[in-house]
Amino acid sequence: MKKMNLIYKSTRSNNETVTASEAILKGLADDGGLFVPTSIPKLEKSMEKLANMSYAEVAYEVMRLFLTDFTEEELKSCIDKAYDSKFDTEEIAPIVKANGAYYLELFHGATIAFKDMALSILPHLLTTSAKKNNVKNEIVILTATSGDTGKAALAGFADVEGTKIIVFYPKHGVSPIQEKQMVTQKGDNTYVIGITGNFDDAQTGVKNMFNDKELAKTMNDKGYQFSSANSINIGRLVPQVVYYVYAYSRLYKNGEIAKGEKINAVVPTGNFGNILAAYYAKLMGVPYDKLICASNDNKVLYDFFETGVYDRNREFILTSSPSMDILISSNLERLIYKIADNSAEMNSNLMNGLKTEGNYKITDNMRGQLDSFLGGYADEAKTKQTIRDIYEQTGYVIDTHTAVAASVYHDYVASTKDETKSIIASTASPYKFTRSVMNAIDEKYDSMTDFELVDELSKLSNTEVPQAIEEIRSAKVLHDTVCETEKMKDSVEKILGI
Ligand SMILES: *Cc1c(COP(=O)(O)O)cnc(C)c1O
């Protein structure tokens, strides 16, 4: 049977249509928009069937519906290379029940944060896409990171033939362990640069380079082309849909939920990629009810869901959940486009408002289509308190990002009395944010070094220190470049010798 090809369009114009593999290669559309599938496919396998599949098998069932121009062999090969022994559990994404909620642990991959779920497969999707499209250029992955993407992308692309990876991170905006993980990255094709600005500056700098036609031409002449590993790449988004399907199928398999029972998902959010994947899973037919978007003090999304106004004109706050310290949630554009009835014109106008004024307001009609979503936020004190409470009540230790979601979840239950079973996306291992986590549990830990804290956490939580942390205890710093925000392009040109 010949399957229908799913076409992708830009959120900012009607002209550009591409296949999945072309969308993965390009990352961003030429007009600056994001690629979206023209429709969201429905799951073809029943929940009974999915419940008896492995993670890799579920991944195939979900991804083949989005990446329709990949052959079965190509896609299965990508999946098998990604979800292997790099993960420390065969379940890949296990679920832990604590205090009435189901924590979906997305941090069992190489860099112990949820970005691994997508970034362990993206390099394979990308090199396969390059082959399919007869690309001869070397692919240069350009990435801005608030901490976790960078390391996960570096780990994914290190020494992958035909690629180079350049990562920019805010020098003073990531945790010490996050920084150490990045600057010790091995691989001849890896480059890590700290910038003096914040994450949004890094992201803007990267976006500007992607939109720089002249730079693209110079690079092409020298045999290079950019691609993006940021969460705007459809090759990041699609693998994230998988675990929302998988999580539901596991709860069903284990008898935690009845057939067709609706559940909620609570997602600690920054760039809006993870929660958008949950929404796509819902649109595919998985019975998710409310999607609760949890923010930290940078609560631009909370305000958006409350008022219909997206306004980035506010103070940028550094928090203990740095991967969510974001004022421009890039992936929200895909949702805006959808609730504008796929109007590229309407979406472009709003995004233009964001660029020039720093804000936009959606129409009442658009707001009416947001009823799946709900916003919540937790400030620093609440986040800390939540880590301590859950530890004291259950012995389970969660990281700061997950704690933002847990706090929002418990507030939601207290105020609505909604007893719908809920999945909380657990996006990082507590070992990645050890100092903040241990400080939340007891201030007496303040005086210990980072690695003393790691050992203390291991005792306290009765869990083994993850391999990713063991590795950096003694690793050498291999990258120490710092540049000013305005000099990002110069750095790239220097690396490529152009
Ligand atoms: C990236 C990240 C988030 C935010 O995910 P988005 O897809 O950007 O919304 C949350 N928690 C952790 C630990 C992360 O690394």
Automatic annotation (TrEMBL):
Q: Name one Pfam family in it.
A: Thr_synth_N
GO biological process assignments: threonine biosynthetic process
Keywords from the named record: Pyridoxal phosphate
Q: What class of enzyme is it?
A: lyase
Q: Which residues carry this modification: N6-(pyridoxal phosphate)lysine?
A: K115
Record-linked InterPro entries: Thr_synth_N, Thr_synth_N_sf, Thr_synthase-like, TrpB-like_PALP, TrpB-like_PALP_sf
Q: Where is the Threonine synthase N-terminal domain?
A: 8-83
Q: Which GO terms describe its cellular component?
A: cytoplasm
Q: Residue ranges of the Tryptophan synthase beta chain-like PALP domain?
A: 104-413
Which cofactors? pyridoxal 5'-phosphate
Q: Which SUPFAM superfamilies match?
A: Tryptophan synthase beta subunit-like PLP-dependent enzymes
Membrane-spanning residues where?
Answer: none
EC number per UniProt = 4.2.3.1
List the GO molecular function terms: threonine synthase activity
NCBIfam families associated with the record = thrC
Family, per entry: Belongs to the threonine synthase family.
Q: What is this protein called?
A: Threonine synthase
Q: Which organism is it from?
A: Anaeromicropila herbilytica
Gene for this chain: thrC
